[in-house]
User: Fold these one by one.
Assistant:
Number 1:
Amino acid sequence: METETKQAELDRPQKVRGAQELKRQDEQEKQLTTLNLGPTHPATHGIFQNILQMDGEKIVSSEATIGYIHRAFEKIAERRPFYQITPLTDRMNYCSSPINNMGYHMTVEKLLGITVPKRAQYIRVIMMELARIADHLICNGVIGVDSGALTGFLYVMQYREKIYDIYEEVCGARLTTNMGRIGGMERDLSPRAISLIKEFLKDFPKVFAEFERMLNRNRIFIDRTEGVGGISAERALNYGFTGPNLRAAGVDYDARVMNPYSSYEDFEFDIPVGTKGDIYDRFRVRNEEVWQSVRIVEQAVNNLPEGSYHADAPHYYLPPKQEVYRNMEALIYHFKIVMGEIDAPAGEVYHSVEGGNGELGFYLISDGGRSPYRLHFRRPCFIYYQAYGELIKGSNLSDAILTLSSLNVIAGELDA
Amino acid sequence: MTLTNDYVLDKITVQFGEDAIWGAYTPDGIMTIFTNRESVVELIQYLHNDEELQIRFLTTLCGIHYPEQKDRELCVMYQLHSLRHNYRIRIKVALPATDPVMPTLTKLYATANWMEREAFDFYGIQFTGHPNLIRILNVEDMEYHPMLKQYPLEDQTREDKVDTYFGR
């Protein structure tokens, strides 16, 4: 039965799928069903609500409601000292927390005028690229799940766990990492961390190649994803798309290359682009980015410079604990930093990093106080999720689910 | 060619006059200019259409509240990006709190839709011409705009969190 419907679907002329045609049919039949997709639906992978108007299996229109996990981070940030804001950024895109943490740290460093040593920058690059791999593994694994292939998801998830082991070794936490500090990392990469990273680099490519072999040229998977949920480059730019979703539409904008930060200019890597901006292209672009991230991590680990893992900025960077017990100056700095008695200079900065799903920007205004006067997060998910209604108009419900997972909308980042 | 701040500033000042473009400063390498709400949409449209500038990407938009500045308490910040030249520019419009009305940018940028709804939700800025200006992140029946500075973050009746104990 299932396959017959599928076949009939494929045999239908393409124009029947168009919204105009649907509208005409509706006027004839006048039978639309309202369907609440979400807020808690297992297939939406997060708390999103979409009120769909359905004509049979086809979506005629949709209305998105967001804000279910809004936690007022921008408001909270106006009251906290700078170092206490890092844990808030963890909870935005919780699939790649280190990128958020370090993006925020770099923004504050830009405000304070701190230059971070090369070694710290390389460690950051390693952690950010591992985070990108973890983020893309989830997204692409889930695309597989939503199109009916659970195997790939479970298989690559083991390697996400290995990335989390590396996080744990570097900062002590796995999911909401709170990694690094303003001015660098809180500790150097331990020998165990380096061996875990090297082990990951040795084993992961084989596993990921298998994952790709299962889906990349899989006829069933291509039939489900090619030409579905597509967006043109022009519309994507108008909608403020960034990251893999924009690159899948054929625009080669990547913040790591256009405005390099944290020594990204030292590394050799390619920016994959798609052509049609559909689910298949997004999937392939993310897969290729995983390979490029592996390349970057390899280069960074093998060329890790000697030197300090943090900047010399005693006003903002916590002194080592042993020093605090023995040294008066260190004790004073420790106390002042922890109690939030350190005033940042007045200023206004914008810094953006290439997050797991696009340009993650931080717009920070300081009035010279202990906490930001205004901190605005440019959250890529929030910005591109508004195109979802346009992407799913006229498609099947099952394709809409797949479109949602291919956009990689993370509820925490959407609602901040 | 690369665009420089001075060049862009000259170009738009010639186009719009000194009445509409003022107060340019460069806090972090990104030129920030002030304009008035009558010219802002036209200005962003010009930056978009000009073949030389090609500033065609709205990176972000947000509200800011300065309660001390009389008659210019609210501010809307637009940040635009030219992907062609990798050039960013920031445009600010100051508004009085008694009349927080702005023209919408949704006709030019689809992405401005939710950004403007967010600015409305947080700061109560009314965007005229917006297709669906309702709250986006907070609940519908909220009676205030929470990011305004007069609304404190913490419950003011609590006695275990006195500011002086926390250095603030």
Number 2:
Amino acid sequence: MSSVTTTFHGTSDADSGSPSGGNSRVKAATTFDNADGTDGTKSRSEQLDEVVQSTIHNVAGTARPTILFPERDSYLSVVSAMHEGGCEMLEDLTAVDYLRLSGRELPGQIKPERFEVVVHLLSLSAARRFELRVQVPEEDPTIDTLYDVYHGSEAMEREVFDMFGIVFTNHPDMTRILMPDDWEGYPLRKDYGVNRVPVQFREAPGPR
Amino acid sequence: MSDIDLLASSTSEGAQEMQSRSQASVKELGRETGAVLRGKSPAPEEIATALVGSEDQTLAAEQGDEDIESETMIINMGPQHPSTHGVLRLMMELDGETILRTKPVIGYLHTGMEKTGEELMYVQGATNVTRMDYLSPLNNELVFCLCTEALLGVELPPRAVWIRMLMSELNRVSSHLMWMATNGMDLGSTSMMIYGFRERELVLGFFEKTTGLRMNHNYIRPGGVAADLPDGWEEDVEFICDNVMKRTDEYDELLTGQPILRERLEGVGVITAEEALSLSITGPILRSTGVPWDLRKTMPYLAYDEVDFDVLVGTYGDNFDRYAIRLNEIRESIRIIHQILEKMPSGDYRVQDRKVTPPPRARIDESMEALIHHFKMFTEGFRVPEGEAYVAIESPRGELGCYIVSDGSARPYRMHIRGPSFVNLQAVPVMLQGGLLADAVATTSSVDPVMGEVDR
């Protein structure tokens, strides 16, 4: 290990927290820079709570992750507010087809619809996760894209489009991502006929 | 129709095909340069001018001017390419040797595992998810089982928790060793490939002894683990630790100071913390940018808050940082395993709840109830209360999440896996942009995508 030279960048980050051996550019970290409420101000977690209180009223329970039920129209603005409030990362974006569970109950005045887009936002500085669930009706399966707030939503929204047929308006590249371009139907919908669709191959005439 | 046209039409990719830059939308161009990242977006026209060149140049190119220098070329790398670790396809627009844009095209390995997950009972579910990220199967099983248990509301006996942690960390070691091997191969260090596979075999040998299989174990199950650790497991694990630790030092000596390797890695494939956060990148790539985010530390699951280890971060977000992080994470994992060896509690390795875990084999011969339970367990499965749960763990590649919706039956109503490789692939266009074609292989390798998980 003695042969390990210093970095070509010319800096030495080898401080007391360095792991044994290896190279000096990697250092051990135990704290997150932004995470403190020590200077008399509110902690990031409390700030986020305020954002939640001020933007949405349909909050389910107190268990973590905090679950929010924004309306479809205000969804983008809620996510933007959460982003401003300290949710640095879009963790996950997916959808559920509630075709067989249409009578489910939701808190507040939210009317259950067939599709539900589920978004997980992560605040790294507060080490906290927020779950947003948005109802998307069957007759108009469109919803705003989060691309302008979180660029990482690109692939996830394409996957939801591919699997559920939910269109994200203003998405830069709303094409299929996992299935072939010319695939018919949306596989993860509950009314998608499993085993009834012949396997499709590009350029090969299908039996239908 | 000429041969060229015929070839072009028969290999047409339709709307997925990447357009030349002159035809791409300004928004898309901006994304690739990272210019649309919040806080520093220049006007769209500026980006367009900077990227495409002034209008005169574009016009000249359109009129078939002999200016070869301004011509770009779109080439395909993969899906059948030895360095793509599976079937990743990259479309790249090149200006000479410089990469202007990249688009990963995926889906070649899509087998509808999320749909399959809706058809399988919770008992069977682990066999499905374990095949996603086939280099760290135990982590997949772990996240699925943690999610199921969150819905069930069962409390695990401590030994089950610690066995899971042991297996998860051993799996991290084997996965990173595998990465060291393939990364070495991608960079032309073929001896590293042999070494990495050799040490990984030690870990897989222990997995085989414990679970019965080298991969796709189905060892971690809802309610605990399938079997207790084999007799003499302490010696085996210590042997692995000593060996891997010694060999890691050898790799360090072989690679870290190697001028050729450093030349190929340092300053290549750079991504900033801001870009990584915006693109939802997690795992070693995010940490290489200096963001100390590791779910084991920041949002502890299992008993990670009871062991002592460091989260490793880099400084520059380049390929070398990611190499160094993975190399040293092997050492950190070994450190955790040493503590697990000391602290492993005794007791049950699964919940003693007959509705969740099958009865022991010996009981079936003497007890009618045990036989009934066993039969019901494997024909009907167990019912999970209605509800939704999201659980995330730190897999060797980043945040591995599982979202399950239960309708009260024995099968998940919806099972979604947030694969770290799938999301992390979005970093590839940013990392490659402006780099050399020869570095594309090294950079793609440093992202460490597992295509089974990308496509699911």
